Amino acid sequence: MSAQEPRAEAVPRKRVSRLLLAAAWLVPGLGHWLLGKRLRAAVFVVVVVASFVTGVLLGGELGTPKPGHPFSWLATFACLGNGVLYLVRMVWLNGLGGALGGIPFGLSGGGDPTVAGFAYGNTFLYTAGLMNLLLVLDVADIARGEKS
Amino acid sequence: MDHLFLMLWHALLVSVFFAFLWRSTAEGRRRLFLKTFLVMSVGSTLLGWLMFPFP
To answer: Which residues are within 8 A (CB) of B39 and not within 5 positions of it... i.e. 6 or more apart?
Structure first.
């Protein structure tokens, strides 16, 4: 910036409701729906759920933390992005008691490494979670008015 | 399940996602979808073909 240019005024960033972000994470598309972006919300929920269901049907394994495997935390983070889909699948696989009691290292992510679709299934599950995390960021941008 | 079908299904989902995430007009979405889908599907096929001679 040259010396002649006026200094930009510091504009305080608009705060985003944490409840809105939590809703956007928990249910794919819900954040956009609440912001009035109904078409986008419908498309996003279909895409994320379709990707997640494909991953499960192919025998993919949801990421869970494994001791001695640091990358399993990354897989967990990606899969946690699926929000309620991840939580429901975890309860489905482990039971409510097992899911709560198994945190962090006693959880089963399901899946079958011996089936042909295992790696593909994992890819679809990670993709679904990461797409939903991008949606949360998008919701934050829209709520701040930085994007329409 | 057919690997090619899975690749195309994945490319389709991701392309639709980014078209709606990054573009706000119907024309913009259509163009980005086609570009992304073609790059992912044709690019992957080409890469697979190029890797074929390697063990």
So the answer is: none
Inter-chain Cβ pairs, chain A and chain B, closer than 8 A: 36
Q: What is the DSSP letter of A114?
A: T
Within 10 angstroms of residue A75's Cβ, the number of other Cβ atoms is 21
Write out residues 109-128 of A within 8 Å (CB-CB) of B: 116-117, 120, 123-124, 127
Cβ atoms < 10 Å from Cβ of B47: 10
Query: Does an H or E element contain A62, and which?
Result: none
Q: Tell me if chain B has a CB within 8 Å of the CB of A49.
A: no
* Cis peptide leading into residue A70 (ω within 30°): no
- pLDDT per position as a tens digit, A98-127: 888 878 888 888 888 898 889 999 999 999
Q: What is the pLDDT of residues A42-94, one digit of tens each?
A: 999 999 999 999 999 999 999 999 888 899 999 999 999 999 999 999 999 99
Q: How many CB atoms lie within 10 A of CB A8?
A: 7
Residues of A in contact with B23 (CB under 8 A): none
Reduced DSSP (H G I as helix, E B as strand, rest coil) percent helix, strand, coil of chain B, to 5: 85, 0, 15
pLDDT at A7 over 80: no
